Amino acid sequence: MTEMKRLITFVTAIILFLGFAFFQGNSEKTTKAKIPTVGILQLMNQPALEQIQKGVISGLKREGYVKGKTVKIDYQNAQGNQSNLKTMSERFANENADLMIGITTPSSQALADVTQKTPIVLGAVTDPKGARLVKNEQQPEANITGVSDQAPLKEQLDLILKLMPNLKTLGIIYTSSDNSAVTQYKLFKKLCQQENVTLKAYSISNSNDLNQVSQTMLQKVDAAYVPTDNTIAGAMQTLVKNANNSNVPVFPAVDSMVKQGGVATYSVNQYKLGVMTGKMAGRLLKGQKVKDTPVEYVKHGDLTINLKQAKKLGIHIPESLIQKAQKKGELFK
């Protein structure tokens, strides 16, 4: 009888063990199945966009979505190719990504073309309405919301005028096919008119035009302004080289372009913008509705100064601005 009890106890223990193992196995499979997939589509290799992408990963992590552990990240870079944007967007749709993030306007537009259901978060889209991605920024009615990288244009123009009090003619150069750049040009033009600043506009179709068009511009202006423009940012060294040869300062809209040879700017911190984008994506993954997620804007820019470049061009930077850049922005010496 004792042996029978031992046998029953032993068999019961095995059954319990196998049942527990089976339950654990199925539980792990279920957990793995619940890990969401986020597709990130980036237009090209470019310092500002790289910072946004890194910020997105950090923002997701702050919401509890850790790459490779609690979220699967499918990161695709189109290398500036429109055909790649279409193919990569379709890839996300085919793999049933739970959420998609578009870094830049062209990337976001490509994502919008493949789905009207999957949530899409805009990362660095200057004018969501103008790009026809969102109709109501406060209460997005479809599947798209996000974060705008609209530059603080008034702060930027005021900075240029402060550093160049004798400025007579300001040039602006932008890519005609870049929605963000065109939008900023129109807004910047109005600001210049209000401040009685003579603005001369020059546009390019692609990076191959930059060398010749910039040389023409630099012969006719006292300083040059570059809006948020991915094409020019990717070929910034060409513009800087020509500007240095003409002894003309360049004031870009983006901090990374100051590091590449611009003089100074008040700009949206690209990494912080990416963090905002990632955190918004995290909230949507947790169940927040797109219609309850207004488009977000960065209200004030951080001051970035390239002191070395300013000295090269003979531009005096007030000590107060230098200290401000050291405390709350970036100072390149």
How does this structure look, described?
It is a single chain. The chain has 333 residues and is α/β, with parallel strands linked by helices. The chain has helices at 2-34, 47-62, 82-94, 105-112, 153-163, 179-194, 210-218, 230-234, 236-246, 255-259, 270-285, 307-312, 319-328; strands at residues 37-42, 72-77, 99-103, 120-123, 144-148, 169-175, 198-204, 223-226, 250-252, 264-267, 296-297, 302-306, 330-332. It has a six-stranded parallel β-sheet with strand order 2-1-3-4-5-11, sandwiched between helices. A four-stranded parallel β-sheet has the order 7-6-8-9, with helices on both faces. A three-stranded mixed β-sheet has the order 10-12-13. Helix 2 runs parallel beside helix 11, helix 3 (82-94) crosses helix 4 (105-112) and helix 7 (210-218) packs parallel to helix 9. The model is unreliable at 27-32 (pLDDT under 50).
- Derived structural class: alpha/beta
At the fourth CATH level, what is the homologous superfamily of the largest domain? Response regulator
Order of helices and strands: HEHEHEHEEHEHEHEHHEHEHEEHHE
Ranges with pLDDT <50 over ≥5 residues?
27-32
Proportion of beta-strand residues: 15-25%
The rough form would be described as elongated
CATH domain fold name of the largest domain = Rossmann fold
Distance between the termini: 89 Å
- Rounded Rg: 26 Å
Approximate helicity band:
40-55%
- Tell me the strand order in the biggest sheet: 2-1-3-4-5-11
Q: How many separate structural domains? A: 2
**CATH architecture label name of the largest domain:** 3-Layer(aba) Sandwich
Number of strands: 13
Give me the oligomer status: single chain
Protein name: ABC transporter substrate-binding protein
Pfam family, one: ABC_sub_bind
InterPro entries: ABC_SBP_TrpX-like (IPR047776), ABC_transpt-TYRBP-like (IPR007487), Peripla_BP_I (IPR028082)
